[in-house]
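W.,

You were right to be curious about this one. When I first looked at the sequence I had no strong expectations either way, so I just let the prediction run and decided to look at it fresh. Below is the sequence, 163 residues in total, followed by the output.
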Amino acid sequence: MNAPKTASKTAGHPAGKKAPVKSARRRSREAAVQGLYQWLLTGEDLGAIVALGREQEGYAKLDVKHYDALLTGCVAEAADLDAILSRHVDRQTTELSPIEHAVLMIGAYELKHCLDIPYKVAINEAVELAKAFGGTDGHKYVNGVLDRAAVDLRPLEVTAKRG
């Protein structure tokens, strides 16, 4: 009798390669998107959202400092981040899908405040979040918006890279 086949960690990946291990920063961005999504949809108290996030499986694998900065920073600066984004989106930020809105807020926040993260990395991380959580082509929209926002938020870095 043959033993039943079990799913392997390489299933669904080309040539049997293992899925890449997510960094603590990537995990913190994913958790922050989920918290911002909840906040955008419900307007729930941030303290309750943070408390719920801390109870989630995998919380210990986050870069907790980065998660807290993203979630609390995006909520605290929502109006300012929306003002930055509004110069580069084709509609009101309130009309964006809540996932794309949350991802764009995180991308703009990192471009504005996380100067240790190269602007291209901040944009790429946001694109990956949009691919993981958003609609079919949402990542393309996120890429275009943040690429234009980077010129405003990191002009010297963008000019040096494109120069």
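Here's what jumped out at me. The CA atoms of residues 46 and 143 lie 27 Å apart. And, maybe more interesting for your project: Residues 24-42 form the longest helix (19 residues).

Coffee later to discuss?

I.
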